[in-house]
Amino acid sequence: MTPALATGILITSLVLAGWALVAALRERWLNRGHLALAAVIEVAVLAQVVIALVRMAGGEKAAEPATFIGYLLTVALLLPAATVLAYMEQTRWGSVIMAVAGAVVAVLMLRLQQVW
Questions:
Q1: How many Å apart are CA 63 and CA 104, to the nearest integer?
Q2: What is the pTM of this model?
Q3: How many CA atoms within 13 Å lie on the side-chain side of 95?
Q4: pLDDT digits over 41-100, tens only?
Q5: How far apart are CA 49 and CA 54, in angstroms?
Q6: Where are the beta strands (DSSP E) in 1-116?
Q7: For this UniProt entry, which segments traverse the membrane (predicted)?
Q8: I want to staple 105 with a disulfide (CB 3.0 to 4.6 A). Which of 9, 13, 68, 70 is the partner?
Q9: Terminal-residue alpha carbon distance, the chain
Q10: DSSP letters spanning 7-75
Q11: Where are the domains of the chain?
């Protein structure tokens, strides 16, 4: 795990969550900016996952390896799944889905740092 990258992901995903929540409160669906930010976060998440797996293969160990791997898989798959669900629900509820996903990614990154 790279702490600076994890912190960047955490902050950016909270920005996405807040921005999507504003869209939901305005009864709007996501715009391209939301989706672009989600894509940027996903690229950063995938980079973090690769870094963590390489370090684990190199001999570093997480405090709880099974939990750590579970969190890694969840954080890697969450934003793409939320984007698909939000795209299927092109109402304010799609924005709510993305807001919740952004908040969950932030929590998962925090937990990944703690378990590492």
A1: 21
A2: 0.89
A3: 19
A4: 999 999 999 999 999 888 888 888 899 999 999 999 999 999 999 999 888 899 999 999
A5: 9
A6: none
A7: 34-54, 66-87, 93-112
A8: 13
A9: 7
A10: HHHHHHHHHHHHHHHHHHHTT----HHHHHHHHHHHHHHHHHHHHHHHHHHTT---SSHHHHHHHHHHH
A11: 3-115
